[in-house]
Amino acid sequence: MSIVQEALQAVMKKAIEIAPDAWMPGGTPDPLIARRQGLIGAPISRVDGPLKVRGEARFAAEFPMEGMLYAALVYSTVPKGRMAMLDTAAAETAPGVALVMTHKNAPRMKPMPLFMSKSKAAGGDDLPVMQDDRVHWNGQPIAVVLGETQEGADHAASLIRVTYEAEPATTSFAAARAKGTKPGTFQGEPLKLEIGDAEAALAAAPHRVDAVYHTPRHSHNAIELHAATLAWKDDELTIHDASQAVSHMAWSMAEIFGLDEKQVHVTSPFVGGGFGSKTLWGHHVLAAAASKLAGRPVRIMLSREGVYRVVGGRTLTEQRVALGAQADGRFDALIHTGVVAMTGHNNLPEPFVLPARSAYAAGSFKLDVEVATIDMLANTFMRAPGEAVGTFALESAIDELAHLMKIDPVELRIRNEPEKDPTTGAPFSSRHIVEAYRAGAERFGWGLRNATPGSRREGEWLIGMGCATATYPYYRMPGGAARIMLTLDGHAKVEVAAHEMGMGTATAQTQVAAERLGLPMEKVRFCHGDSRFPGIVLAGGSQQTAAIGSAVMAAQQELVAALLKLAARESPLHGLKPDEVACRDGGLVKTDDPARYESYTAILARAGRDELVVEASAPPPLETQHWSMHSHGAMFCEVRVNAVTGETRVSRFLGSFDCGRILNAKTAGSQFRGGIVMGLGLALMEETQFDERNGRVMNPSLAEYHVPVHMDVPEIDVIWTDIPDPHSPMGAHGVGEIGITGVGAAVANAVFNACGKRVRALPITLDKLIG
């Protein structure tokens, strides 16, 4: 970016900050916020539930295609070098094998467009995909076998022989750090921020803590394995994918194969979990290339091991948190710095300092993320990237300070509650974390907690309580758009290139669209998961609800304007302007005169129309630069630590959330609980074991990479403020990622209260508690 461009951006940013509220999206509250009775917030069961129960919800690996071949991959076993010999003869002659593709016969393709490098770029790395004999990480696909059956393809893949000319590789964190680090950036912005002299303030503070915390690598383990079923017809490519970014996928694949974007059609009606992993990875490109060579449709479904080899996860972190406070607990200094590991082929450092930017007031700040480069699989987004592990360090340090100063941990957090964003100075659009803490503490029975570690015991079990703050930004990415079709029979169809990954998108958005259009839910159909629908909507960053909501709001406004144009002189609506009417009871009504009403059916019938179709784009997300916007949570945990074995069991957990207005009480509650369960895994068991001698992931299966099962998870209680944000669509904030945030610290703090052992490195395993 040139100096001139940077200067223009700075001027624009400042203009947005100081502009009147009314000029911003959200300057006028969404009319749905005022409707407190109706579909919004109702605990409605999933509209796709019956399909899934009956097995009729078709996922990516379930699309039938005539003449389909099945793909199997072969992975490299060295972290860096070249293939000196690649023998595929035995595989090529194996029964049922249609094609073996390597760098020797793969079509010429461009590298994947790196995620965030352009508006629709979705690639996990920018390396050439099977274009030469080079190896860039241990686990890189080096051959594709297509067979008439999956079993035949897998067997043939095992027959391929390869030898390598290995080259020196950096595969240890210590070695990477010794070579030097570079500044980390996230979404194009630097992660380094300094306000005042935090080190001096820390040194001068009468009370302080200064500690280092570690979090390990984490791998993605969605229930649905990464899969795609695809086929070419002439120069057009159809992909049925497990994707949380269909528009991005279509554009990116077109770039790779030198096609027009319209020549690639991506569908993804159902996704069995994504959490940041289901964008564009090498297996998509390899399957499409192999299909092109073979002239037949191809299905590829990564094995669980294949996901660990091909799809990135969360990288490790080393974090320093230092807090300096006055006698009343108010922070003079907040320091949160550290180093992460990252490949040189993408740019996604774990931005663990993000929570520290807005969670607490302090007299000075020093925030920074440095990057050490390792020869490994590119890391990627994983649920609450930055916040999930950043809050472990920050909230653990606050608990350490509270114990040192003999202040209740909840009270210490409330004493440092900021009146405005502490690092930008922007006003909060809404912030009710104190209410969430008060309600959560009362419901959880926090007042019964004994501040002395190890003071509560039942037999061999030491019992403790801990808490932590959760925070996650409100995002709304640009590019949202929606199409509404209103038919003569009074039904509406809403189309958005959005995604249903199990979080209840289709259900909540049907509720919202029905309420916005004044129709019952049974007359509204929400369509998603197709790149031919409008919009560039990513299911990520907990922003899809806002992106869809803003787009549908814009489309509804277009629909109202179009209907009023159709209203003839004899219509009671004739002459009215869009801002004078509301959608209600299956039609339009003058807001201050209920007698001036006409149904959609009557308007269309009089105009001789069978249907009316409108499309509109959402305004740019300027509200995120004008206000400081976040979801919040207060996490409370009770654990039992066995004094003999060190076994840790979470016996109770409560999340008290402040996420604006809740659109569907049932699906939101499920999202909160699911995030907390994932957080329990982060706290107690999840760890990708990375062999630093050769850069290989050593536990690529659910037998060795442990995640919580039913016996690990107690009953989880969730409550929420349900206070709308007047500046966001529907008054809602994201709920998808706030649940995992803060859980690691809440568990670690409860463990300390139970047994007096302060664990500063996740996961909290037996060896860290015994002795």
Identify the notable features of this structure and list them briefly.
single chain, seven-stranded mixed sheet, six-stranded mixed sheet, 18 helices, 25% helix
**How helical, in percent, are the residues?**
25-40%
- Unreliable runs: none
Q: Any idea what the shape is?
A: globular
Mean pLDDT: 97
Total number of β-strand segments? 32
Percentage beta strand? 15-25%
Walk me through the topology.
Layout: H1 3-18, H2 49-53, E1 69-75, E2 81-87, H3 89-92, E3 97-101, E4 134-135, E5 141-147, H4 150-157, E6 161-166, H5 173-178, E7 182-183, E8 185-186, E9 189-190, E10 193-195, H6 198-204, E11 207-215, E12 227-233, E13 236-241, H7 246-257, E14 264-267, H8 282-294, E15 298-301, H9 304-310, E16 317-325, E17 331-342, E18 365-373, H10 387-405, H11 409-415, H12 433-444, E19 457-458, E20 461-473, E21 481-487, E22 492-495, H13 505-517, E23 524-527, H14 544-566, E24 581-584, E25 587-590, E26 593-599, H15 600-606, E27 611-617, H16 623-626, E28 630-642, E29 648-658, H17 665-684, E30 690-691, E31 696-697, E32 716-720, H18 743-755
Parallel strand pairs: 1-15, 13-14, 17-18, 22-23, 29-32
Antiparallel strand pairs: 1-5, 2-4, 2-6, 3-5, 7-18, 8-9, 10-18, 11-16, 12-13, 12-15, 16-17, 19-20, 20-28, 21-22, 21-27, 24-25, 25-26, 28-29, 30-31
Helix pairs in contact: 10-18, 13-14, 17-18
